[in-house]
Amino acid sequence: MKSSFQYLIIGALFCLPISCDKEPCELSKKYEFEGEWLWVKTTADWAPTVTPEILGHSMSLVIDSIHYTSYLNDSITAQYSYEYEELENEFGNIEEYITLETGHKFLVTIDPMHLILSETVIDSLVWYYIRK
């Protein structure tokens, strides 16, 4: 039996509108988070951890120089343009953020093989990915 948290994750993926940008692409800086990512788990302080095995679905993410595209079982569920920014936190450290055209903002934590996207609201979801 799936928990309401699992339905929230699936619902969020299917309820996001798909947007297609037909304008010419401009070349931009290659960010370390660009690439193809396979979803591993999603956590929140207020809910159990959700994984592909629990949901019975695979999810992935492709980020290029202008688009953030999410997939469920190899079908596009959403595609957004995004903006990248670096902000200094209260300790003087630089943090990386991406903000989707919807206004949804993620703190980006990255190493060569792992991507963590943390929503920037209280009690938010944290999405964990590995590079494909």
Structural notes for this entry:
The chain is mainly β. The chain has one domain: Lipocalin. Helix content is 12%, strand content 48%. It is built from two helices and nine strands. It has helices at 4-15, 52-55; strands at residues 35-44, 47-50, 59-63, 67-72, 75-88, 94-100, 105-110, 114-119, 126-131. Strands 1-3-4-5-6-7-8-9 form an eight-stranded antiparallel β-barrel. A hairpin with a 2-residue loop joins strand 1 and strand 2 (47-50). The model is unreliable at 10-27 (pLDDT under 50).
Briefly note the CATH topology name. Answer: Lipocalin
Mind summarizing the main beta sheet? 8 strands, antiparallel, barrel
Level-2 CATH architecture = Beta Barrel
Helix count from the secondary structure assignment: 2
Task: Provide the CATH top-level class.
Answer: Mainly Beta
Q: Into how many domains do the coordinates divide?
A: 1
Computed Rg: 15 Å
Number of distinct beta strands? 9
Structural class: mainly beta
Helix and strand topology:
Layout: H1 4-15, E1 35-44, E2 47-50, H2 52-55, E3 59-63, E4 67-72, E5 75-88, E6 94-100, E7 105-110, E8 114-119, E9 126-131
Antiparallel strand pairs: 1-2, 1-3, 1-9, 3-4, 4-5, 5-6, 6-7, 7-8, 8-9
Please describe the structure with a list of short key phrases separated by commas or semicolons.
single chain; 132 residues; mainly beta; Lipocalin; 2 helices; globular
